[in-house]
Amino acid sequence: MEYWVRRLRSERAGNTPKGDALTPEQREIQELKRKLRRVEEEKEILKNH
Question: How confident is the model at residue 1 (pLDDT cuts 50, 70, 90)?
Fold first, then answer.
């Protein structure tokens, strides 16, 4: 129970969870962040060539 309380307080303070997302919205945000990082990496590779 203490784990969930700490996690909820952390999220309410504005920190995103590092592990599995709790809600569908959090899962979507995590997926979009992964996609954004990938696109930024690809852009950097293309810029260097």
Answer: confident
In contact, 39 and 45? CB cutoff 8 Å: no
Residue with tokens 């945000």: 29
Q: Residue 36, Cβ neighbours under 10 Å: how many?
A: 10
How far apart are alpha carbons 22 and 11 in whole angstroms?
10
Residue with tokens 């997926």: 31
- Give the Å distances, CA to CA, from 46 to 21, 28, 43: 32, 27, 5
Rounded Cα distance between 5 and 26, Å, is 17
Query: Can you give the pTM of this predicted structure?
Result: 0.55
